[in-house]
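Example 3.2
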Amino acid sequence: MITAITTFRLPKPITREEARTIFLSTAPKYQGVAGLVRKVYVLSQDGSTAGGIYLWNSRVEADAMYTESWKSFVREKYGTDPSVTYFDSPVVVDNLTHEILSDE
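Structure, written as C-alpha cells:
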C-alpha cells in the first residue's frame, strides 16, 4: 500500500467551516476511485494550508489520480499548486473495522 500526502498553501487562510464546505463539495469525486482505500482531508490549524492524506492499494493507482488535470482542478479550486509526497505503507491499523491490513 501507498500513502500519498498532498498539501497546498492557500492564498489566504480559510476557517474550518469554509474548509468543511469546500471538502464536502469535492468528496464525491473520490468515491469509487480505483485503488483508493481512504482519503482524509486536512487543514492546518492556522487555516493557511490544506490537503489530503490518501491510502492507495498501489503507486500505479495513486499516480493515475495526480495528473495534470487533477493539478489544474486544485489550482482552480484553491488558487495554488499542490505538492504530492509518497510513503510506503506496509501495515495499516484500522480501528473502525478492527483490522490490521498488510500489503502482502
